[in-house]
Amino acid sequence: MNSSTISKVEKARRYASEPERVRFEQFQVTFRGSNDTHTVRMDGADFTCNCHYFQAHDEACAHIMALQRLLATMMTEDQQTAGAHFSFANAVS
Known about the structure:
single chain; 93 residues; alpha+beta; three-stranded antiparallel β-sheet; 19% strand; elongated
């Protein structure tokens, strides 16, 4: 490996240990739930999920809340709290 590549790998390792450097703007994921596989999308601070709960209530489901918790350090506060009466953003771990 040449020195340029080694430098890039070291920089990537440092960046990976600092997730607060990254902010999601949009994404789509497949979420394997207990009963089915769901598609969760985020665009800005707007989330959607194709699960029955989200379709019926138009508020954050367990799949969205799990992603908000998992990716909290890479989301804005608005994204962390979007669509929910409860937020992990202010909860004690």
